[in-house]
Structure formats: C-alpha cells, structure tokens
Amino acid sequence: MRIGFIGLGAMGLPMVKNVAAAGFEVMAYDAVPGRADSIPGLTPVTTVGEAVAGADIIITMLPNTGNVEAVLFGSDGVIGSMSPDAVVVDMSSISPIATRKFAERIRAAGGRYLDAPVSGGVSGAESGKLSIMVGGEIETLDFVRPVLQSIGKAITLVGGVGAGQGAKLCNQVVVACNIAAVCEGFALASALDLDLETVRTVLAQGAAQSWMGDNLGPKMISGDDSAGFRIALQVKDLGLALEAAKSESVPLPATSVVNSLYLEAMAHGEAANGNQSLHRVYERLTNRTIAQEEQ
Amino acid sequence: MRIGFIGLGAMGLPMVKNVAAAGFEVMAYDAVPGRADSIPGLTPVTTVGEAVAGADIIITMLPNTGNVEAVLFGSDGVIGSMSPDAVVVDMSSISPIATRKFAERIRAAGGRYLDAPVSGGVSGAESGKLSIMVGGEIETLDFVRPVLQSIGKAITLVGGVGAGQGAKLCNQVVVACNIAAVCEGFALASALDLDLETVRTVLAQGAAQSWMGDNLGPKMISGDDSAGFRIALQVKDLGLALEAAKSESVPLPATSVVNSLYLEAMAHGEAANGNQSLHRVYERLTNRTIAQEEQ
After folding, report:
1. Mean pLDDT per 10-residue run, chain A (295 residues)?
2. Is A96 helix (H, G, I), strand (E, B) or coil?
3. Residues of B with CB below 8 A from A212's CB?
4. B290 CB near a chain A CB, below 8 Å?
5. ipTM attached to this prediction
6. DSSP assignment of A248-261, as one string?
7. Contact indicator for B186, B282 with CB cutoff of 8 Å
C-alpha cells in the first residue's frame, strides 16, 4: 500500500514517522523542504504531485481549511495528480461545512474521501495513540484502517463525511470550557488565599475532576507554558465551532465567553504557549500580579 | 463521644445514619419532626437545645447560610445550650465570609469551629464516601476525625476557618462549568446531526473527559432528570461563589454565564431536577424540540 503524506508539522511529522515505521511505502511532502529528510523508511518529495502520483491513500495534516483547499484543489493540487480511485484522508482539523464540499469534489473526480481529525496532541502523535474521529463510508474506513492503526489507538466512525470534523469541534468546545473551568476555580481559590495544589488535589478526587484539570492544572500551578496544544490552534478550532454553531443557529454562551478569554490570551502574546496559559488571563483580569509587585 | 446532629435532609439523613452505624451516641434534630424516628442507634430530639446539650461535637447540615445562622445563634440556638468546649462542625455549603464570623462567635463562647462542606451528592452520603473539605485547626480536625471518617472517604484540611467553604465554592465553579461544557458539546453535536452516544464515547476517551461527562452525559442523552444534586442547590452555590468573587474583585466570566444558564433552568421549572437537566436549556435556546414537534 502506497501512502502520500502531505503536511509535516508538529503533528504531521510524528504521525508520518509512525506510518513509515509500520512498513508502508510513504512519499512525504511539506511546503517547507527538508522536514522529512532524516526519517527512515520514507521518501521525501518536493511537490504535491510527486507525493500523490500512484498513491492508494493520500493523507493531509495541515493547519487550516484554506491550506487543505489549496493542497487539494490549487495548482499542483492533489486532484490533478491522484489515481482515480485513491482515498483522500484529511486528518487536519478544519470546517465540517467545507469538508462536505471538498469530499464532493474528490468524489466527482472518482476518488473517495474521509475526514479523520485527531485528538491527543503532539504526545499522542508521537506515541501513535491519537484518538481519531472519522466521517465517511465504513468500507472506505476499513480500507484505510491499517494505516490509521499506525497513527491512533481509538478509531471511531462518527457518521458520514463531515461527522469527524463535527465531533472534533464538539471535543474542542468541551475541552476549552473545561480549561476555563479550571482557570476560574483557581482564580477564585487564589483570591481566597487557598493553597492551589491542595485545592487541585481535592477537586481531582470528586465531581470536579477532568482530564484538563489532571493534566493542565499542575502546569498552571508551576507556571509551565510549554505547548502540547497551542493557544492559537484552540482559537482556530473555537472559531470553527462558533462558525458551525452560527450556521445552525445554536447559541453556545459559555463557549463564546471562553473564546473571548482565548482572544485576550492572543492579544497578550500567548499564541504559541500551551492552553494552560489561559490561566494568566485571570491573573491579568484580577491584576493580582501587579498588585503583588507593587507591595 | 456524643454527637448532636442538626439537619436531616437529603444529605443529612444518610450522613447521620452512618455516624450512628459507626457506634457514636447521636442526638438528631430536624425542624421537620419524625425524620430520624426509624433510624437505629440514634435518639431523635425535638429541639436544638436537646441535640446540643452535653454533646462533644455538634454537626450542622443545613440548606443555606441563613439556616446555619439561625440554628447557631437564634432563639433555642446552639450557642445557648452547647458545652463550653464543644466543637461545631458545619458541613453545610454556605458563605466562607459568614463562616469566619460564625467561627468567631463560637470561639468567643469558648467552643471550637470547623467548616467541613462535602462533595459527592446523595449517593456519596449514602455510601459514606463523601469528599470533605475542612477549614480550621488541625488539632480540632484530629479530634473530630473519627466521626468524619464514618461520613467521608477523603478528608482534606484545606486551610484555616472558611477555607473548606472556599474550596467547596471553587469545586462548584469547576463542576458547573464542566456541566455546561458537556451541554454545549452536545448542543453542537445535535445541531450537526451527530449521534450523541457516539460523540459522548469519543469525547470520553480523550482530552474532553470529565467526571461530569462520564456521570451526567448518559443521563442527558437518556432524558433522566433524577436529582443526585439539584439545580436549585447549584444555583445557591454559584450565588455564593459569585458573591465571594465579587467581594475579592475577581471576574469569573464563564461562571457568570453558566449561572445565567442555571437561572434559565430555574425559570423553566427545573429547580428540583438534577444538574444534568441543564442540557434542556440548550433545547429551549435552539428550539429544536418545538421545531421537531411542528414537523
């Protein structure tokens, strides 16, 4: 089975390493040359056309909807060089509405299409334990499943084309609100002069427990801003979620507020920091750092 | 060791059962007569004075700050009948600010005071596995610990008097936001015609996981409104959290919005339903139920 893999960023690079390590023949492309040069078992190529020619499965892992559209349908795009019966698997997190249109155009050219965004961040990509949310036909998923199994642990067919992207947006809505929940709990705890580590431990034992509290809570307390998942990418995903909500006339009041908090973080230079950095929005809102400095 | 237990409601009754079952001598009082009549191993009494006279430890488990104030300091109040060196353990969830004042008055009368609110709901109270957040002196906690161990599993001294109530409010902030997170994820999933159980399962496997998603998510999907923890009590707790936030000038934007959503639930008759009923706020906001009925 021959794989064309397009997009070798923070997520794509560890993912393609795992695909190559599983023994698939891989042609790997990124707009930035050289990224795949030192990876054993794959062939770096310098054009989308080379990555795609003769491939049974074409995987895209790109930052946003516009990137995917350009790679699929732009000049030297996938659609110009792909085998007529190839499967395009878009693992980027992009608009579910645009996804349905992309799938239609690929199908019109004879190909098949799956949307298969992932959850689990860079660490999940490195360990090959991503959670993969798939939209499309079960037969198509069964065809690409061996490849996806080299990338992810839980592979779930959520529904038809676009359903994978839809589920990813629901995931991001919950994730972002859960992060804000931890931030607000900590902001109140700080204001009440409670020990944050004690409060974190108590909350983790009961109904306030969350993956985000368990994993980002300690980083908020220690001031570790390292990015598993960047603020800027969450802002992109929340934008897609609110766009989808708007198109369906679904008010999401909490998510809308949390999105504004993320924008505050962007405005204060936190774009490249991890999501746990959202807690500093509350430090700025409450001005406690400045108050302490002035003491 | 003799215990005076005041407040035999949905939480207090299973708690006092466990205290009595552990072999402590218990005098039990509630404003509603008869509630403790059929419970083995305890003595029902008809006044606060009888519950408190000669007690080493006085436990209160009451709905709100005003109730605690009235029971402690009103006519036939605790302070009029308690032994001079008794310990008052208030396990209600009430204002941390009022708590500090109550403790001061009890100390001025010679007694000791702990605030020890709980998390874990009616099921935790029945199984004796509540999480107990304690504010006060470690020596006082050590004195009452054998009794608390009959009620709860995790007993944490968070800080001085009021710190238990403070931690409980932080807990409720996180809990309420996590519930809203699940509701918003489901609202978007419904609008995108995704299967809710599939989305729930996918989200529970990754970074969107939370105790609330695991425990209330299935009830939202099945339409089970049964109350482990009532909407009205969450509204009370969020009111206390926002009051504390106001007094410390801490903006809690997400919690404030979630509080408004809970008020919408109150306005539509959900007060006695469980917290999972918050999901119906979104059905009303998006009018999907009505839209479906009209089809």
Report:
1. 96 97 97 92 96 98 96 96 96 96 97 96 92 97 98 96 98 98 98 97 94 97 92 96 95 98 97 96 80 51
2. helix
3. 207, 210
4. no
5. 0.92
6. TT---HHHHHHHHH
7. yes
